[in-house]
Amino acid sequence: MNLAAIVFLPFLGAILPLLLAGRSRVQVTVATALVAAVSLTFLVMASPAVFAGETAYFFAEWLPQLGLHIGFRLDGLALLFAGLILIIGILVIIYAHYYLSTEDSAPRFFSCLLLFMGSMLGIVTADNLILMWFFWELTSISSFLLIGYWFHQSNARRGARMALAITGAGGLALLAGLLLIGNIVGSYQLDAVFAAADTIRGHELYLPALILVLIGAFTKSAQFPFQFWLPHAMAAPTPVSAYLHSATMVKAGIFLMARLLPVLGGTTEWFTIVTLTGLATMLFGAYFALLKTDLKGLLAFSTVSHLGLITMLLGLGSTGAVIAALFHILNHATFKAGLFMIAGIIDHETGCRDMRKLSGLRKAMPFTMVLAVITAASMAGIPFFNGFLSKEMFFAEAYQQDLFGGLSWFVPVLATLGAMLSVAYSVRFVHDVFFQEPTHDLPKQPHEPPFMMRVPVIIFATLCLAIGIAPMLIASDLLTPAVAAVTQSVPVLDIAIWHGFNMPLLMSALALIGGLVIYIGRSELLTFSRQFDPHDAKEVFATIVSATTRFCDELMQRIENGSLQRYIALLLVLTLVLVIPELTAIRGLTGGRPQLPVDAISLIGAIVLMLAALATAMLHRQRLTSLMMLSVVGLVVSLVFIHFSAPDLAMTQLVVEAVSIILMILALFFMPQRIPRASSGRRVARDVLLAGTIGGIVGTLNYALLTRPLNSISDFFLANAVSGGGGSNVVNVILVDFRGFDTLGEITVLAIAAAGIHKLLNNLRPFMPSSDVDGRPWHRIKHPLMVQTVAQAILPLALMVSFYIFLRGHNLPGGGFIAGLVTAAAMILQYIANGVDWVKSRFDYNYQTLTSVGVMIALFTGVGSWLFDHNFLTSAFTHVHWPLIGEFELATAILFDLGVYLTVIGATLMILANFGQMTTRHRPRQEGY
Amino acid sequence: METLYAITVGTLTACSVFLILRGRSFPIVIGLTMLSYAVNLFLFSTGRLAINELPLIGVGETSTDPLPQALVLTAIVIGFAMTAYSIILAVRVRGEIGSDEVNDTNYAEQEGQR
What are the alphabetically sorted keywords of the record (chain B) (predicted)? Predict the structure, then answer.
């Protein structure tokens, strides 16, 4: 439990600074430091077991199906890193208290810092690879917030964005790599992964997994060629630079490599990639550190260089190299955090970070100078400072390796060169800033910072010296279990200052002398480097980003050019691309089902249907004609239904057809009368080709389907229609009983569509031409007498017929849908023949209410089944014997059908009657009716 | 007969797709309506073609598949709702922007071909 508390406390504590936002800054700082301190206490409480060589675990299931668990482990490696994170974290919090100006929002800063701290602790203690990745991404996000802390500065925003883009992309690669590993192993738990190390190394997916994981590690730890984001992240406040970009976050990649070294390491691929990347990074960083004029820029590139050094050691992978790597992590964290804080102090007290302007500060800031000398000496690797020890071990490892056969000698040579550069920039840091002639044109009068601001630096400097003088006393207890966790064997640590006269000592001496020479001759070097084009990484990055954006923009313009015709054509083409390969795979289009012979009536019907369809399409510019042709299509379709044993469909189609055509004629009135221009020949050709292909494919599919034997579930419906549903019209029984729930959904959709139309018509001001396209006025007789008379005579007949169709629907063709449509059609006829005023004066009913009532009746019929302990929409029926009429069946399904009936009438009339009123004084003008 | 049916459905589909590819709202609505007819015919035919086999119990010896019929019946009504909605949407658009072109007007100026 304590383990989880170590990680989760900072997350919970992140709220604390925000809650204290109104209080004084001291309270905020103390609260933040306390959170870290409590977490550290838990860590210390858990540490004795680790020192004794054990590993502490915490486990809770999260998503076991995905192999994702909340698992934490505290072994030596985790302890080393967690200790660094928390201790340096507390020191940074103290430092930040003095560093932040009064305008800066301290609660926001500390809250983000704690978030980051928790994420970082999560990475180092996670026992599950996916969980580790989760925290990994959280550090990317929280570091984004911290780098962009001064979001009013554009370079802070850009630096933050770049860091997020690079580390975020690396995080995705890492996820892919971890998923591969998890797939090979079958578990994401670290112990299982360690146990399966040989399987992983022997697996064919080893190399992809390795490369993906390394991309993640290299981006995070700013390794070549991803190093460029780190210097730009220096736009962050200095405490952030000290914490994230020297001591912790950039070490996350190193940690990952150390963590997975037992699994992924030990192969030629690992040696080659990791060692060479580390070496290149070390040299690259050191060279650019020397050229930088900005204090933080120098430190940033120096950090890149040292991270490269550690990476290279991990690439070598021997026990000695691992000891050196972990030892250097510790040492680098101490001296580099100290140096960053000194840079921050100088910036804070002089208002300037440019080494060309700063000089001679030793008089104004003597104490700071001493601290700078100590930490810089450690960075340079001067004896009696801790940097010397790990660098000495590094030389020994570089000298002893023979990974590159006859060319192995170049590794120690380049390592010495890197060390020379390191000495040179360390000297530069101290000499340029504190020595030489004092300058007077600084933004602020330089003076020593507040004592408490120096305290963290004093602690770091003391550590540099103490470890440097008595390494075994201070560091061995911490390092031994950490090395054991990486090498999976208990190592024998022997870190000493003096090993006698040997090669590493010679290399150290060479590095010191060479570094001084380089520093003295630096002006030559600067002149030399000036002839190269200064490739600002930020500009390169910005160019790439803007090029990508431009490319996407152009692509969007190309695809999304505002032509809906184009979109639909592309969609149809895509359909073809997907369907055609499937169709070509079919062997034998004709199936085994016996086919019906063609009779003359069918042939004539089909020809009429096709001609009408073609005419509809070809005459589409003459809209009324086209519409008439469409109605022919619709009518013949209903004949098709009749012909192929579907009387219900035929009736429905017939009435729907009539109603649709009336609606469209009405709509035509509001459409432009001018005949549109003809499409260009090319477009017509394209559309004909596309439409023809689609039609051909649909026809082919239909043919293939029709000629294959039928295996239907309908036998159940046929067998149970009478016994279970109480009706012999199986179609209707399916609608109101077996699949009643579908029907309920469908009438609801109908009601919604009607409501939508009602809404669309509200406050619509349509174009209402007073004459036809040739200027002839409309006929003065709006409602011819003959139509009026016939329509009035038809109404009662139609109502009676619809009632009859409704009642018989359960047993013979008919039912709610058809009856409703017939009634609606009869009503529409009244509107057409007699006008809206006439109908309104006789029958002023609210169709919205009718529709709602219909849906409600259907719904409550279904709900009613619950009262009798049946499932929703279970129907019941009985047969009653009525005098005179005879045997009569009563079913609850008829109540449901009544709902359908009313909904259909209501919705149809809502659509048509409301639309028809557009030309009259009744047209909808405001909300409601 | 199956061949004839399939050809008819194919022709209906082709004509309606051609109409849907027009640049004015009215032909598109006509095309949608016709496409819904074609789709209904297609769905209906999943029960295969049968003459004089009404899906009524006790009328004939055999009965055609009633399930596609039930589905298509509701589809016809829903198709009507869709037609109605789209035509009224077209009227509304015409009322709002004064044109029945479906393309972005900027695009229309560039290309000038419908």
Answer: Cell membrane, Membrane, Transmembrane, Transmembrane helix
Distances (CA, A) of A231 to A110, A165, A235, A281, A544: 23, 15, 8, 14, 18
Q: Tell me which chain B residues have a C-beta less than 8 angstroms from the C-beta of A754.
A: 81, 84
Please report, in tens digits, the pLDDT of each residue of chain B (114 residues total).
Answer: 889 999 999 999 999 999 999 888 899 999 999 999 999 999 999 988 888 888 888 777 788 889 999 999 989 988 999 999 999 998 888 888 878 888 776 554 444 444
Instruction: Encode A853-865 in three state secondary structure.
Output: HHHHHHHHHHHHH
B64 to chain A, minimum CA–CA distance in Å? Answer: 7
Alpha carbon distance A239, A250 (integer Å) = 14
For the domain bounded by B2-111, which CATH number is listed? Answer: 1.10.287
Contact A712 B33 (CB under 8 A): no
Residue A887 pLDDT: 62
Q: Which domain holds residue A382?
A: 154-539
Q: What is the CA radius of gyration of chain A?
A: 42
Question: A490, A521, A539: which is the final residue of a domain?
Answer: A539
- The tally of domains found in chain A comes to 2
Distance from CA of A787 to the nearest CA of B (A): 25
Considering just the CA atoms, what is the radius of gyration of chain B in Å? 19
Domain boundary among A519, A539, A559: A539
Is A885 a domain residue? yes
A314, A278 Cβ separation under 8 angstroms: yes
A69-103 pLDDT per residue, tens: 899 999 889 999 999 999 999 999 999 998 888 88
Residue A476 counted as domain residue: yes
User: What is the Cα–Cα distance from A467 to A474, expressed in whole angstroms?
Assistant: 6
Name the β-bridge partners of A833. Answer: none
On the CB side of A385, CA atoms within 13 Å amount to: 22
Q: Express each pLDDT in A622-675 by its tens digit.
A: 888 999 999 999 999 999 999 999 999 999 999 999 999 999 998 888 888 777
- A683 is a domain residue: no
